[in-house]
Design goal:
alpha+beta; 24% helix; four-stranded antiparallel β-sheet; Aminopeptidase; 214 residues
Length: 214
Amino acid sequence: MARDRTDLATLLQDASHGRFPDPDGEWHRIPLWRPGVEAIVAFTGHAYFAVADDVAERRIDELGADGFGGAHAPSVITALAGPGAWIDSLDLVLITRTPESGTGRLVERPDLVDHPRVRHAGRIRDDVHVLGYPEIDNPSLVTVARGLGGLPELGIQANEATDGAGLLREALATLPGDQLVVAGVAPGNARALRTFLRVGFEPVASVQVYCRAG
């Protein structure tokens, strides 16, 4: 399959306006958005491979990749990632647009930078900021980073006493208005998924990110 002339950011921007790839069962190759981070992204009936240049298109075809679920076959990603790779969970890709205007009371929380969610974000995203409430005894946090496709990406960790939806709304209010924002949520994390949907995020695709050994 030929290399696509678009990139993931453009695909997600199009999806935010209701324009999706043709559900033809095909796959295309797209550029990496971060060195060392590779990914398989699937929309309805069409898949995209953001893989390094040493991976030949013929190799992806030989592994049985297609746009009808074959791209996310475990055998495909394990073969492409290779021995010793770190492979993230399969996530839903959720998108929303920030409100035209808003104010929030979240502040930078450098005391939370060692949280596992923050370390995870730092592994695969750039310019990670850790936000939380001013109350130092509240460990709930949001990571705001340059993530999928180079777009703003949010991650959330809310404790039992914190309204996760409220925390997300506060985080969106810290960003410029009418900006596309993405999030990746594991389908099995039903609590987080319900929270993102309640705030207005919409599912548009799936993604599995990996980093090869070394």
